Each structure stands twice: as structure tokens, then as C-alpha cells.
């Protein structure tokens, strides 16, 4: 399950243009890294929630 995220712990969305040779939107939770795991079903979708700077 997922923990309830506070505003300061919301996942950040960013674009990875080198993944599978395609531009995909990857969203990671907390301190997870690309090498650790890719969240397939993030709590928040970048299409719905846009972050400044990204």
C-alpha cells in the first residue's frame, strides 16, 4: 500500500527521454530512484498535477 503523502512529500514528476528510446513521464515516490523501481501506478499523474520547474 501507499502511505499518505503530505504536501512536502508529494512525488515529483519528470520526463526521461532516454527510457526505452521514448519520451515517457516517469513519476517516483519519496526517495525511490530509477535504479530502484519505477512506479507504474503513481498516486498522482503528471497529466493531472503539474509541478513547477518540470
From TrEMBL:
It comes from the Eukaryota. This is 19797_t:CDS:1. It comes from Dentiscutata erythropus.
Amino acid at each position: 500500500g501507499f502511505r499518505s503523502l503530505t504536501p512536502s512529500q508529494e512525488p515529483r514528476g519528470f520526463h526521461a527521454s532516454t527510457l526505452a528510446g521514448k519520451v515517457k513521464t516517469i513519476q517516483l515516490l519519496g526517495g525511490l530512484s530509477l535504479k530502484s523501481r519505477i512506479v507504474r501506478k503513481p498516486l498522482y499523474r503528471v497529466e493531472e498535477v503539474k509541478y513547477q520547474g518540470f
